[in-house]
Every structure is written in C-alpha cells, then in structure tokens.
Fold this sequence. Notes:
By secondary structure, this protein is of the alpha+beta class. The chain has helices at residues 7-13, 18-27, 44-66, and strands spanning 4-5, 34-36, 39-43.
Amino acid sequence: MTRYYTTAEVAERYRTAPSTVRYWRHIGYGPKGVKVGRRVLYAEAELDRFDAEMARQQAEQGMRWAA
C-alpha cells in the first residue's frame, strides 16, 4: 500500500520549512503532490523520484566542475 506524507512531513524530510514545500509546489518544483480534499499529500514513490532526480542533477554538476 502506498504511503502518503503531509507537507509538514515532506518539509522535515528535506530539512526545510513547510512554507518552502508549498512554494515549491506553487512554482512547479519539488515532488508532485496530490490534493485530497483540502490537503496536499505526497506519495512516497514521488519523494523517491524527486530524490533520484536531485542526485542525478548533483552528479551532473559535479562532473561539470571536475572537467
């Protein structure tokens, strides 16, 4: 079964403020959330996808600096 996280839990995972997570959602950055009633929830698989994307981007930037 898929686990869903609240905005506060996502903020804790990324060591940032909940307002930052809401801003990311507003500008189309970060993990994609789904609206359930009045709440926005984030699937664990989506958080994992975002983590992998961030790791890939950091690896690319590291390769650019090494070249």
